[in-house]
Amino acid sequence: MTDAAFDPSERSTIHRLPSRGAYDKKTVFDILDRGILAHVGFTGEHGPVVIPMGYARREDAVLLHGSAKSRLLGALAKGTDVCVTVTLLDGLVLARSTFHHSMNYRSVVVFGRSREIADAKEKNAALEHIVEHLVPGRGVDARGANDGELDATLVIEVPIQDASAKIRTGPPVDESRDLSIDIWAGVVPLEMKPGAPIADEHTASDKPVPDYVRDYSKGR
Question: Tens digits of per-residue pLDDT, 136-189?
Fold first, then answer.
């Protein structure tokens, strides 16, 4: 592994349409930092499993957390090979043939071996990092986890051993013989947008919405 890129390995090398692949850290990290939902795959005692989880990237590692009572997270805490995927869906690509319909996307696949962060100070720092990734600025306002809450939480770190990104952009790629088909073809752009903030019943009616909530889309 170099400072600027992940060396392609047997498991991370992109074979299908390799021109869409990237291994440089900037591309990989930009996608990880933009996303908020990961799918975490590993082999548990009853076979393969994939679970959706909130996450954060911290330097060359992915941070995960969940209940200490979770059987699945317990398996991660013991240390196991993990695959973490993050996908940003940018559009539906409508071609003139069903075969060439596709999607525009930015995706990352990360491989590493999980380990538990057990030290209370390190756990708290990791949890605060995850919150800041999900809602930048929130950590300044919200109360930090107390000892009981830390004990009830498992925090997992997955150092990134291998990683690759794959990106598709642009219009459909039709066969030349299909270009004369008289139907609409193109891209339906998609993006995740935050809605208007909704205060809970315990928030005073005159309490202003924090800037980082009101301008959430600018922080991502």
Answer: 999 899 999 999 999 999 999 999 999 999 999 999 999 999 999 999 999 999
Q: What is the value of pTM for the model shown? A: 0.91
CA distance 167 to 104: 7
Closest CA to 172 of 98, 89, 107: 98
Q: Tokens standing for 128?
A: 């605060």
The matching CATH number, chosen from 2.30.110.10, 3.30.160.20, 3.40.50.2000, 1.10.1060.10, for 18-173+205-219 is 2.30.110.10
**What is the Cα–Cα distance from 11 to 63, expressed in whole angstroms?**
21
**If we measure between CA atoms, which residue out of 11, 5, 164, 25 comes closest to residue 86?**
164
Euclidean distance between CA atoms 61 and 38, whole angstroms: 13
Q: What confidence tens digit (pLDDT) does each residue in 141-151 have?
A: 999 999 999 99
